[in-house]
Protein: Beta-galactosidase/beta-glucuronidase
Amino acid sequence: MKIFILTDEEKIDQGLENTSLSRPIPFSQDWEISMIDVKGKLVHNRKTKALPILAREFPTFSGTITYRTNFQLEKIGVCCLTIERVFDGAVVYLNGQKVDTLIAPPYQLLLESQLRVGQNELVIEVPTTADRQLADATLLLNQFEPMEPIGMIGEVPLFQKE
Structure:
């Protein structure tokens, strides 16, 4: 279980004042991760429970990484989605509707109007920087060093206000 500690100012900024977001909502399936390069080619597709560190397997990948999963809700209520770490930003969709673009920490969203009773689909798109594809360029004369990680790392908990 994760515990989030927010200052009063952060609670107000996130609309969490006087609320409890202690009930975790489990994802009902594994994450489906697909990687499409800048040319539109599917480079990788897999299902996994834990988010892998993709930069180890794909140090020169440049394109968009899409994470997809589902969760069930018995009733509608405010939910808080937190992405522990993301490189270089994330576009969040819920049930086919764009919710927001996150470009800096905290990577946290309140979800309510897009939720529905029953199955909900969460999609998070994470674009990478284009300079990664330069690693194969002969002009660099093998001087390329991998940069920071790509995609999402860590946990992506979803909590519902009780």
